[in-house]
Amino acid sequence: MTPQSDEDEVWRQIVASFNDTAEHDSADQPWPDSENVPAEPARRVVKPSEELEEDLDDAGDKHDEGSDDEQAGEEGHYVPPPPPPLPKLDLATKLAWVALFGGPAYLLIAAMASWHMEGWALFTAVAAFIGGFVALVVRMGDGPPSNDGWDDGAVL
What we know:
By secondary structure, the protein is mainly alpha-helical.
């Protein structure tokens, strides 16, 4: 027999048995012991508000059976530092943002409310959007920061 005829015979068997049901149900097959997960005791998740109420009910007794487990779980909890304040914007940048969002917002509200819009109002809303976008892009400043001095780093 040639290797090609062996492959053809294997494919014929696969196709012939495609719609056959399995001889053994998967529930009857044994589960390997290495896949078993050890049973852990059920833990109760306590929301911070419930924890506070329980602490108040205990009249100051904060060391109950689960407190050691809770403290061990909180040791690795990362609390990020507060974010830095937002930068102060000058008047031109504020107006650019208002124009960028105000023009389309006006058009959307006018269309939803079925207002009759004059040609100059449409032109002003579209021009405000485009002008706000252009103003923000122009003010973005793609160059390097000016406070770094003359040294741009290592030169090879």
